[in-house]
Amino acid sequence: MMTIEASPLTRKLSAFVALSETELAVLERLHQRRKSFCAGRDLVHQGQSEQAAYILAEGWVVSYKIQPDGSRQIVDFQIPGDFLGLRSVLLHTSDHGIEPIVDIKAVEVLVSDLLQAFEETPRLATAILWAVSRDEAMVVEHLVGLGRRDADARMAHFLLELGVRLSLVGMGSRQGYACPLTQYHLADALGLSAIHVNRVLRRLREAGFVTFRSGQVTFDDYEGLVALAHFDPAYLDQTRPLLP
C-alpha cells in the first residue's frame, strides 16, 4: 500500500510547504476512507447536496456543467492529488458534475474531518488553500484560452499545462505523459469540434511540436510548443519558495 509520503496529494502539497510529521499524520488520517469508482458513472451530480469531498488517488476525472440545451462544457480535468467537490461541500450544493474518465480510486473526506484537520494543523490548511487557489487560477487561464487563443495555441497550452501538473505528482516530464483523454474530451474542454481537434493535433504533429497517439502525449519540441502557446507556467505557482 502506498505510504502517505508517496501519495499524490502529499507530493503536490510538498511543493508549497515542507510537511512535518504531525501534518503527515493528519494527512494519513484523512486518507482512511479509500473507495473505488467505475468510469462513466458520476461521482457527484450537478445540483447534488450533502455529499463528501474526495481526494483523487488514482485515475483521471472530468468536471463538467450541463447546459439548458443538454450540451456539456468541460470545466477541468482532475488528476491524482487533486481535491474533488471541495467547494461544493463548503457551499452545500454542487454547481457541476464530476465523472471518472477511467476507473479511479478516491479518498472520501467528510467536511467535519477536514475542518478538524485545519484546526489542528494551520500550515496544512494553508497548503490546501494554496492548492485550491491554484486550481481556480487554472480555470481563469482556461477562460482566457477560450476567448483569446487560436485553436493551435489553445491545444498547445492545454497539453503543456497538463504536463506541468502531472510532473508535480511524478506522472509527467518534458518528454511527455500518459493521457486517457479522447478527442471528444478535448473538444468539450477547448470549445472545438472533435473534427477540429483532430486537425489541430495533426498540424501540431506535422510541425514537429507534439504527438498525441494511443494514450500518450510526446513532446517532440517542448520549447517550440511553449513559444507557440506563449506558455508561462507562473500561474501554476510551482517554483515559489517553500513556507518555513
Overview of the molecule:
This protein has 244 residues and is α+β, with helices and mostly antiparallel strands. The chain has two domains: 4-133, Jelly Rolls (Sandwich); 149-236, Winged helix-like DNA-binding domain superfamily/Winged helix DNA-binding domain (Arc Repressor Mutant, subunit A, Orthogonal Bundle). 43% of the residues lie in helices and 20% in strands. It has nine helices and eleven strands. The chain has helices at residues 8-13, 21-30, 86-91, 111-120, 122-148, 151-168, 183-190, 194-206, 222-229; strands spanning 34-37, 53-58, 61-66, 72-78, 83-84, 97-100, 104-109, 172-173, 176-178, 210-213, 216-219. The chain has a four-stranded antiparallel β-sheet. Strands 8-9-11-10 form a four-stranded antiparallel β-sheet. Strands 4-3-6 form a three-stranded antiparallel β-sheet. A hairpin with a 2-residue loop joins strand 8 and strand 9. Helix 4 packs across helix 5 (122-148) and helix 7 crosses helix 8. The longest helix is centred in the middle third of the chain and has 27 residues, at 122-148. It is globular and about 50 Å long. Residues 239-244 have low confidence and may be disordered.
Percent of residues in beta strands? 15-25%
Number of helices: 9
Mean pLDDT: 87
| Architecture per CATH nomenclature, i.e. the level-2 architecture of the largest domain | Sandwich
Helix/strand order:
HHEEEEEHEEHHHEEHHEEH
The top-level CATH class of the largest domain is Mainly Beta
* Helical/strand content category: alpha+beta
Main sheet properties: 4 strands, antiparallel
How many beta-strand segments? 11
What percentage of residues falls in helices of 4 or more residues? 40-55%
Question: What distance lies between the first and last C-alpha atoms, to the nearest angstrom?
Answer: 30 Å
CATH topology (fold) name of the largest domain: Jelly Rolls
Order of the strands making up the biggest sheet: 1-7-2-5
Global geometry: globular
Radius of gyration, whole Å: 18 Å
Q: pLDDT under 50 segments (min length 5)?
A: 239-244
